[in-house]
Amino acid sequence: MYNQLYTWGMARIDDRQATFAGVLLLANRMQTTYDAAIEEVTLKQWLALVVVASLPRPVPSTAEVARALGTTHQNMRKLLAALADRGLLEITPSPTDRRARRVDITPAAHALFDRLGPTGDRLLDDLFADVAPDDLSTCLRVLDTMSLALTGDSLRPPEPETERTD
Q: How far is C-alpha 89 from the geometric centre of its chain's CA atoms?
């Protein structure tokens, strides 16, 4: 199957094509593996919770979370609603925009972070065990360059704003 995928029934594919397919295959394998390893939430739900927790809170809108995750507002609204139904998020009307819904994590989400944090750390340690630090930095730089070319958005979190002392 591996050779079949990497030849696509024609001449051998180049490194760009292999990288493109590899990124998609790895994402699918990570989702399958981590969804099986963590019963409480899916990998996508976990990522959404982490993003909500890392944004200034309360997050002013579900669209802001969607933008941070590079997905559509409709997909994010569904995912966030499922997390709210489980008591992990609180979604409330915005006091300044009646169309927007504010998003915040709940004490139950904090408890989930505390409970699953060590498991997440172990899974990351296992994933990157054989990756040298220089290779990891190169990989992040390449993935970030690809993201910037595709959407203009970096994969790296924004640097915290510092106050000017003029």
A: 17
